[in-house]
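Final report, section 2: Outcomes. Of the targets proposed, Molybdate transport system regulatory protein is the one most frequently requested by collaborating groups, and we therefore present its record in full.
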Amino acid sequence: MKLGPLRLKLQVACGDAVAFGPGKADLLGAIAAEGSIARAAAAMGMSYRRAWLLVDEMNRCFDPPLVETLRGGGTERGARVTDTGAAVLVAYREMERDAAALAERSAYARLRTHLREAPLPSSK
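The predicted structure is given below as tokens.
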């Protein structure tokens, strides 16, 4: 039985909320690239409402906020990732790389000896 590589899901908690995780990191990166929450959501195949809720949760968990919305006409509208948002994204991606290195540790090898390739069917 060949198991795939270690896959950890890093989440940063803020009280009971998930302040940051892989999906929010991807969304923040898309906002930086697209300059708009709506265009970032579309690029990710996500609804604007879902993207807005994720941005709102991130902004409520970090000080200062990670995303700033720009109102007005012309080129000065949309959204931008703040300096804090960029710093949080860089730090999170570094943590992901550090976590990937856990696959080389003996604890990972011991855990893998007990892990199934896929879950058993539900007994319900």
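The first helix runs from residue 22 to 34.
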